[in-house]
Amino acid sequence: MNQVGTILDMEPPSPTSDPPPREPGFELPPGLLQRFLDNGERRDSLVLVIAEWVAKEIITGSLLPGADLNSVDLAARFSTSRTPVREALNLLDREGLIELTARRRPRVATLDAGQIESAYHLLSNLFGMVAEEVASKSDGTDLSPLDVQMQRMQVAYRTNDVDSYFWANVDFHDTCGEIADNSMLKRTVDSLGLRVLRFRHRTLTVPGQLKPSVDDHARLLRAFRERDIELAGALSRSLVRHSLRTLQGTIGRE
Questions:
Q1: Is 98 exposed, middle or buried, given 0-12, 13-18 or 19+ CB atoms closer than 10 A?
Q2: Which strand (E) or helix (H) includes residue 224?
Q3: Which CATH number fits domain 32-108: 3.40.50.720, 1.10.10.10, 3.80.10.10, 3.30.365.10?
Q4: What is the pLDDT of residues 176-220, one digit of tens each?
């Protein structure tokens, strides 16, 4: 079997491969979610701060699907009027994180199994395209930011700090999008990626998921350096598909 086939077909490692658990940290890279939400449109900074806070609560599971959002409470939390709160909620609605309907409070969006699967399949192809672009450019491109994020993922893995690992992972793939230097592709990835970040976070909380993830990202970084376009694309698609299978298994046990 060739190298690509081996990676795509391999079984996930044993769930005993992660280190002992510890109290989770929280290392959201400054401005990361704001960049996803703003998407180059230069929105008001307070609107982005409010939208980022709500998005973070949704992504990390503090706000569950169907949970109500109170605009008065949000205005009080950020010491502002309801106008920027309303703009932030409209932004989150457009990005698919919340639902705004007439005559009821905003609430965290819900996605059915079919919608989640469709989003992951599309994201798999988009991540693969980004990885192929990075590998094709890596000969003359500085990959040191990816080294830094890879080190952060390895440290978080060794301490079993899921939140820190997750945000380092998100930052890694965001940097890949910057290196790929395809603005239309990156905007599409950022918008779709926001909708599934909460599910990506959830899969990493499943015991045994950090080890295969950190190993495959190390292989992905090597593929970039070796300019192995086919392998980089296959690895990136495989990472997303494995995340989907893990999520489906988790949902199936509930």
A1: buried
A2: helix 210-225
A3: 1.10.10.10
A4: 999 999 999 998 999 898 899 999 999 999 999 999 999 999 999
